[in-house]
Design goal:
By secondary structure, the chain is an all-alpha fold. 79% of the residues lie in helices and 0% in strands.
Length: 75
C-alpha cells in the first residue's frame, strides 16, 4: 500500500514539474517582440538558402551500398 502512495506522489510531482517547465517556455516564447521574431525568421531563412542542393538519384545510384540506391536501381 505504501509503495502505491509513493508512486502516486512521484507521478504528481512529475506532472507538476512538467507543467512548470512548459509554462516557463511559453513565457519565454511570448517575451519576444514581433520584430525579434521577424529577424530570427529571416536569419533562419538565410541559413536555409545556403544549404547545397539535395543529392540527385544518379549520385545515389553510384553509391552501390546505399539502401536507397538499391531501390532506385530496381526501377
Amino acid at each position: 500500500m505504501r509503495l502505491w502512495k509513493l508512486l502516486g506522489l512521484a507521478g504528481l510531482a512529475g506532472v507538476a514539474a512538467t507543467g512548470a517547465v512548459l509554462a516557463r517556455g511559453e513565457r519565454q516564447r511570448r517575451a519576444h517582440t514581433p520584430e525579434e521574431v521577424r529577424t530570427r525568421l529571416r536569419e533562419r531563412h538565410a541559413a536555409l538558402a545556403e544549404v547545397p542542393d539535395p543529392v540527385t538519384p544518379a549520385e545515389l545510384v553510384s553509391g552501390r551500398g546505399h539502401r536507397l540506391a538499391r531501390v532506385l536501381r530496381r526501377r
